[in-house]
Amino acid sequence: MKTKKVVVGVTGGIAAYKAAELVRLLVKEGISVKVAMTQNACRFVTPLTFEALSGRRVIYEMFGPEGTVMEHIRWGQDSDLIVIAPATANFIAKMAHGIADDFLSTCVIAATAKILVCPSMNDCMFKNPVVQENLRMLRQREWTVLEPGEGGLACGTEGPGRLPEPAHILEQVRTLLAAHDLAGIKILVSAGPTLEPIDPVRYITNRSSGKMGYALARAAVRRGGEVVLVSGPTALAPPPGVVFFPVRTAEEMRRCVFENRAGCDIVIKAAAVSDYRPKECVGQKVKKGAESISLQLVKNPDILASLGETKAQAPCILVGFAAETEDLLANAQKKLRAKNLDMIVANDVSRNDAGFETDTNLVRLVFRDGRVEDAPMMTKDEVADLVLDRARELREAWLGRSGGH
Ligand code: C5P
Questions:
Q1: Fewer CB atoms inside 10 Å of the end CB: C or N, the chain?
Q2: Closest by alpha carbon to 90, among 68, 58, 122?
Q3: Pairing of strands 32-37, 5-10
Q4: Which atom of ligand 1 is nearest to the CA of 322?
Q5: How many Å lie between the centroid of ligand 1 and the Cα of residue 281?
Q6: Cα gap 231→245, rounded to integer Å
Q7: Does the CB atom of residue 18 touch ligand 1 within 6 A?
Q8: Does ligand 1 come within 6 angstroms of the Cβ of 321?
Q9: 334-386 pLDDT, tens per residue?
Q10: Where is 76: in which H helix or E strand?
Q11: Is 324 close to ligand 1, i.e. is its CB under 6 Å away?
């Protein structure tokens, strides 16, 4: 995202204040952001707010101070995307009918960039057939129009009309800016912990939050991939656009992964599968009594190793994760060979800024041919893109060797 340029167009609705948070998120992503405002938007939030957040001059007048000549043409042609947030009923109508009577509307009409419209208004306004017709016209032009959120509105009513959450708009921006280099590629991702029952109310699990696997699934969808996500229990919402299979135990995960592996080009096992499970799940809650009790554990199936063993039946690029607390590289290399993988993503979970539960990860990518790539500290979203880049390259190399079969 570091080389991308986005114009945020703020129009005159109460949700203009939420656009400040959107600009902050976009800047945090490394995107170069410029803000244009309508005159009415300036009544809700001052240009200074956006100037401080974007670090750039905000334009809100067509015939403003010196230096704005031709900016109305340049802004929409130099950038990759224009986001109109919030988009009022009036501004939507102007865009639909080609009215260009201020800086932002003129910029939109001259733009070659993609356009994302985030409507926000009173629910009756939103439901008005004329607004719906205007939105339909924008969609027909292949602009992206988000559905507004539902709930309490500033005017005191309830219904559709809320500006979508800035984080949701950010995800749409990422999707629109991403290269669609995984189009036509089917990817299976496993994520999260597994949960192995002891009795009806107790279980064994681990600290996996699922964040890494969900970041992989989200990034793969964004890049145009067809994604199946098999996940143990997590607190995360499944990313929109994935085919989602929630599972609990390692055995359920194994069954689900094997049922869905056919036709997958890339399989990434980011799940932290329990190595052992209680030998039996007791039918009734175990009662407190004895000073000590023991639990007999039996080995769970190693899903990744079975996928590796049977790779000839369903050829794919197989990627594993190795969470280690010692001898990171040697252990990762051993697992790569033992499980017949194409790549393993090794991370040191003894650090508290990487691995389980964190938003960042410090990984080493280990390949079959002995290559090791050390990545710097990255967010899990960035690690996801890196892992997908390498998996895609491995697939292309493999297709090249096998003559496309
Ligand atoms: O051997 P270890 O469990 O450390 O290997 C980690 C990798 O193997 C991860 O990719 C994990 O998803 C996978 N795995 C598996 N089934 C298991 C144990 C681990 O698929 N029972």
A1: C
A2: 122
A3: parallel
A4: 6
A5: 23
A6: 6
A7: no
A8: yes
A9: 999 999 999 999 988 887 776 677 888 899 999 999 999 999 999 999 999 99
A10: helix 71-78
A11: no
Query: Each residue of 39-71: pLDDT tens digit?
Result: 999 999 999 999 999 999 999 998 877 556 788
Judge contact between 328 and 334, C-beta under 8 A: no
Longest dimension (CA), the chain: 84
Angle at alpha carbon of residue 131, lines to 116 and 20, rounded to 5°: 40
Eight-class DSSP state of 272: B
Residue 191 near residue 216 (C-beta atoms within 8 A): yes
Average pLDDT, the chain: 94
Say if ligand 1 is within 6 A of residue 53 CB: no
pLDDT, tens only, 262-294: 999 999 999 999 999 999 988 999 999 999 999
Radius of gyration of the chain (CA): 25
Indicate the top mutation candidate among 303, 317, 334, 347 to test ligand 1's pocket, ranked by most ligand atoms within 8 A of CB: 303
Residue closest to 209 by CA, chosen among 241, 238, 232: 232
- Candidates 6, 221, 22; CA nearest to 114 is 6
Per-residue confidence band for 156, with pLDDT thresholds at 50, 70 and 90 = confident
Any ligand 1 atom below 6 A from CB of 345 = no
Ligand 1 touching residue 341 (CB < 6 A): no
Cα–ligand 1 centroid distance for 122 (angstroms): 51
Residue 271 backbone phi and psi in degrees, to 5: -70, 150
All domains in the chain, ordered by first residue:
5-177 (3.40.50.1950), 186-282+295-402 (3.40.50.10300)
Q: Which tokens is 311 given?
A: 């790779």
Closest CA to 352 of 329, 325, 381: 325
Strand partners, 152: 158
The DSSP line for 357-399 is: T-SEE-EEEEETTS-EEE--SEEHHHHHHHHHHHHHHHHHHHH
Query: Which of 302, 326, 335, 340 to probe ligand 1 with, by most ligand atoms within 8 A of CB?
Result: 302
How far apart are the two ends of the chain, measured CA to CA in Å? 33
